[in-house]
Every structure is written in structure tokens, then in C-alpha cells.
Design a protein that fits this description.
This protein has 305 residues and is of the alpha+beta class. It has 2 domains: 194 residues, Transposase IS200-like (Alpha-Beta Plaits, 2-Layer Sandwich); 68 residues, no CATH class. 47% of the residues lie in helices and 9% in strands. The protein contains 14 helices and 5 strands. Strands 2-3-1-4-5 form a 5-stranded antiparallel β-sheet, with helices on both faces. The N terminus is likely disordered.
């Protein structure tokens, strides 16, 4: 029997006059790292490894315990889990976030798993690498390809001959062999096609495509955000503003100005989002726009909602 739903500790300490949650700048901008931009409703491919490549899941009990905690964390954070695959030293998730940022979902998940495993093993220390990897998922074709990629991981690793032979993934939930409330299969299929039968057909057909034929699609679809030791050089804010001007028709003066009509607000939001994604700090963006840093957070939250 599931525990009664309790309001999770909010990662958002503030709200505006209309009750909308304001995303803290600590979420939008990592300290010395590429920012993890939060967008409610976004879908991510997440991968996390054991610390130093060590084994995370040593036996069936630990695999099962991870699934229980994963379900409870997603439930508490109102996140939708579309797919998962657990291997001994790492795991993959395909997850849709709500108002709780992915950063907080993963922190809660990894903290609970680490505490449980250390208690079970009677040890102390890190279980996971400090930073997980996350890639924003856009487009139905990419979603379908990624779904297949995640479920084929045990086959690629030489652990089983077919994805349905691996018990620690959600593949068999998509083929109908098992069903549970943990994975939102219907929601996942809806990302592929509005017609459920068509989505299933496409998913099953893609299982026959060689993995090497899909690798380029996976790698080129979107940048991977993680705590890399080296950060690529970001384009200047002037360059970002020029790119937004070309896309929107709003000049740099319009982006940095005070006009509040819809086209200008959308261009300003597009500039802030692109600048954050390129690794610029909220303080630098605020100086460029002539506003205070907290206004950057408010603009992002207003348009995300």
C-alpha cells in the first residue's frame, strides 16, 4: 500500500504575488559549471555512474531497492518516468519533470540511494560520481530512438542477447509483458504518435535496427550537460543578442530596452534562455540587460509557466 502523499520539501523558497514559484538562481546557474536550465514539462535523458566506475547494484535486492526508491522520488516530485535501465555500474532514465527541477529530483534520488546502499553494506563514502549527465529530449523521432537506445544497453554490454531478457529495464512494459504504475508507458507512446498502435509498431520495428545506425542520432541531437573538467568557450553576449535579433527581428537595443509588448518580452526571454544555456552567469546577463539578477529568474519563471 502506498504511503499517503505528503507535500515534498519545496526547492523553491519564494513565490511571486500570484503564487507562481520563482526558480532560485542557484538552479539556473551552477557555481563554476554549465547551468542546468529548468523548464517545467521538459523531458531529459539522464545517466549516472558509480563513483570511479565502481559497482552500484551488486545483487537483485539492490536492483529492486533502487526501483522502489526511484518510484517514490518520481511520485513525490511529480515527475513522469518514461523509461529506465539499470546496469551494475550505471543507470539511464528518460524522465519528464514538473515544477521540481531535474537537479533536485536527481539530488534526492542519489542521496536516498547512497544512504540505503551504505547502510546495507556497512560502509561510508560516495556511491555515485558527483555529477550526473543529462540531455534535453526534443522531437518524437529522437524520443523513439532514445527509448530504443536505453533499452538496448544490456544487449550492447553483452549481458543478454535480447532486451526482453534483462529484468532491470522498462522494455517489457512497452511490449506488454508486464505493467506497473512506475513507468508511464502510455505517456511515452504518446510522445511517439497520437495513435497508440502506431507508436507500438514504430517502437517494435526500431528494435531491429542495428545500434551503430542510431549512434549518430543520439550523439548529435542535443548537448550533454554535466560537470566536465573543461567548459567550452561560450559565445559573447553580443553574439547571443545578434542571434536572437536574426531569429526574432528585435534589435539589441530592443532586447536591452524597457518595451514590454509581447514580441519584445519574448525576444528578451529567448536571449536570457540562450545566454544561460551557453554558460553565462545570471549576473552577467543582468548587467547586459541593465536589470537586477533576481529579475532574470522572474523572467524565466514567468515564461516557463
Amino acid at each position: 500500500m502506498l504511503p499517503s502523499r505528503r507535500q515534498p520539501a519545496s526547492p523553491h523558497p519564494a513565490s511571486d504575488s500570484k503564487g507562481n514559484l520563482i526558480t532560485p538562481l542557484s538552479v539556473l546557474v551552477g557555481m563554476g559549471r554549465r547551468p542546468r536550465f529548468h523548464q517545467p514539462g521538459a523531458i531529459y535523458h539522464v545517466m549516472s555512474r558509480g563513483n570511479g566506475g565502481q559497482v552500484i547494484f551488486a545483487n537483485d535486492e539492490e536492483f529492486t531497492s533502487c526501483l522502489v526508491i526511484l518510484y517514490l522520488v518520481c511520485w513525490a516530485c511529480d515527475a513522469k518516468l518514461f523509461a529506465f535501465c539499470l546496469l551494475s555500474n550505471h543507470f539511464h532514465l528518460l524522465i519528464k519533470v514538473g515544477k521540481v527541477p531535474l537537479e533536485h529530483v536527481m539530488r534526492r534520488l542519489k542521496t536516498r540511494l547512497a544512504k540505503m546502499f551504505n547502510k546495507m553494506r556497512g560502509r561510508l563514502g560516495h556511491v555515485f560520481q558527483a555529477r550526473y549527465q543529462a540531455k534535453l529530449v526534443t522531437g518524437d523521432r529522437y524520443f523513439l530512438t532514445l527509448l530504443r537506445y536505453i533499452h538496448q544497453n544490456p544487449v550492447k554490454a553483452g549481458l543478454v542477447a535480447r532486451p526482453e531478457d534483462w529484468p532491470w529495464s522498462s522494455h517489457r512494459q512497452y511490449t506488454g509483458a508486464i505493467r506497473s504504475v512506475m513507468v508511464d508507458v502510455d505517456g511515452g507512446l504518446a510522445q511517439i504518435s497520437a495513435n497508440r498502435e502506431e507508436a507500438l509498431r514504430l517502437y517494435n520495428e526500431l528494435q531491429e535496427v542495428p545500434q551503430e545506425d542510431l549512434t549518430e542520432t543520439i550523439e548529435q541531437a542535443a548537448p550533454m550537460f554535466w560537470g566536465a573538467s573543461e567548459t567550452p568557450t561560450s559565445p559573447s553576449l553580443e553574439t547571443v543578442a545578434a542571434a536572437v535579433e536574426r531569429a526574432s527581428g528585435i534589435s539589441k537595443e530592443g532586447i536591452t530596452g524597457r518595451t514590454r509588448t509581447a514580441p519584445y518580452c519574448r525576444a528578451r526571454y529567448a536571449f536570457i534562455r540562450k545566454a544561460l544555456t551557453e554558460g553565462h552567469s545570471a549576473s552577467a546577463i543582468a548587467r547586459f540587460l541593465g536589470i537586477v539578477p533576481s529579475a532574470v529568474s522572474r523572467l524565466i519563471t514567468r515564461h516557463a509557466n
